[in-house]
Amino acid sequence: MLARVASAGMTRIGMVFPRELPAGAVVEFARRLDGQVDDLWVIEDCFFTGGVSLAAAAAAVTEQLTIGIGIMPAVLRNPALTAMELATLCGLAPGRIVGGIGHGVQSWMDQAGAKPASPVTALREVLDVVRRLLAGETVNLDGDYVRLSDVRLDAPPQPIPPVLAGVRQPRSLAVAGEFADGVLLAEASGPSVIAHAWTATGRTPGEPGFEIAAFAPLCVSTDRVEARTIMGRLIGEWLDQDVVALAQHPYHAEMTERWRRDGADGLATMPDDWWTDLAPAGTLDDAWAFIDGMDAAAVSRVLLFPAPELGRARVQIDDVIALARR
């Protein structure tokens, strides 16, 4: 089959390689997805697997697949090294790399001895420096968190890869709107949440040179209620954790009431329009309705998260490919 190529105004479909999967499996996933879907995104979370090495492995065995890193904590590496790593990946796969940089979970940054007093300031400085280095500039900066003197990449990448900010709070989204090439939103970010994100970035939906991408947990089956019951357990956990994106969902209060009263069964029987604004869960048609809504919200990439177990995730590769062929 010919590769699916996303056109202007068409949301790209990708798959995520969860942090729980064994690192060696990324080669299998990349080979199966190459030429079938648009993107493969690897996860870098402390203290699981490294995003750069996973991305390099995936890039080395593919020819068409875009490889994204979601996300590198801004303060865990010197930004000069982050730029070097992204430029090296671009040398392996020109035009097929997307960088992702975010705050990182602050408790993890504390464990690593890298927690900044101002995560927003640190992110702004790192995003600014990394993008300038990738563009071939010589960078001098004596900032609060970044200090570079006459640093320039020996071989700046061509084309320059986009660098997305993995953030969700309003102040951080505003920083992304000024200092990044786009935003990568985490779980539970349906079309209504996307609208809030566009506003917070100060950018216009679909504006050239800036994008919003989103992770979305995938659960499809021929039995809609079964799939939504499984997804309902995850959504219930997010409700208990007060996940930011869910609080922006127009039916947040009603969802919370259903969860507390009836558990996952109550969420499984939510109206279809609630689900369409929440996650690709149910039948393949239901999942496509979610993706279609994201496309209408000017989302550039929907990145589908499979189950964190290797056997189930392997099966879901076929689901992702089926959605990409629509």
The name of the CATH topology is TIM Barrel
Strand order of the largest sheet: 1-2-3-5-8-9-10-13
* Biggest beta sheet summary: 8 strands, parallel, barrel
N/C terminus separation:
13 Å
What portion of residues is helical?
Answer: 40-55%
Low-confidence stretches: 1-9
Q: What's the β-strand tally?
A: 13
Spell the H/E element sequence. EHEHEEHEHHEEEHEHEEHHHHEHEH
How many structural domains does the protein architecture include? 1
Chain-wise SSE layout:
Blueprint: E1 12-17, H1 25-33, E2 39-43, H2 51-60, E3 66-70, E4 72-73, H3 79-92, E5 97-102, H4 106-111, H5 119-134, E6 139-142, E7 147-151, E8 163-166, H6 170-179, E9 182-185, H7 191-201, E10 211-217, E11 219-220, H8 224-240, H9 244-247, H10 252-268, H11 272-276, E12 281-282, H12 284-296, E13 301-305, H13 310-324
Parallel strand pairs: 1-2, 1-13, 2-3, 3-5, 4-5, 5-8, 8-9, 9-10, 10-13, 11-12
Antiparallel strand pairs: 6-7
Helix pairs in contact: 1-2, 1-13, 2-3, 3-5, 5-6, 8-10
Structure description:
By secondary structure, this protein is α/β, with parallel strands linked by helices. It has one domain: Luciferase-like domain (TIM Barrel), CATH 3.20.20.30. The protein contains 13 helices and 13 strands. It has helices at 25-33, 51-60, 79-92, 106-111, 119-134, 170-179, 191-201, 224-240, 244-247, 252-268, 272-276, 284-296, 310-324, and strands spanning 12-17, 39-43, 66-70, 72-73, 97-102, 139-142, 147-151, 163-166, 182-185, 211-217, 219-220, 281-282, 301-305. An 8-stranded parallel β-barrel has the order 1-2-3-5-8-9-10-13, surrounded by 7 helices. A two-stranded antiparallel ribbon has the order 6-7. Helix 2 links the parallel strand 2 and strand 3. Helix 2 runs parallel beside helix 3. The longest helix has 17 residues, at 224-240. It is globular. The protein starts with 11 loop residues before the first strand and ends with a helix. Mean pLDDT is 95; it is low at 1-9.
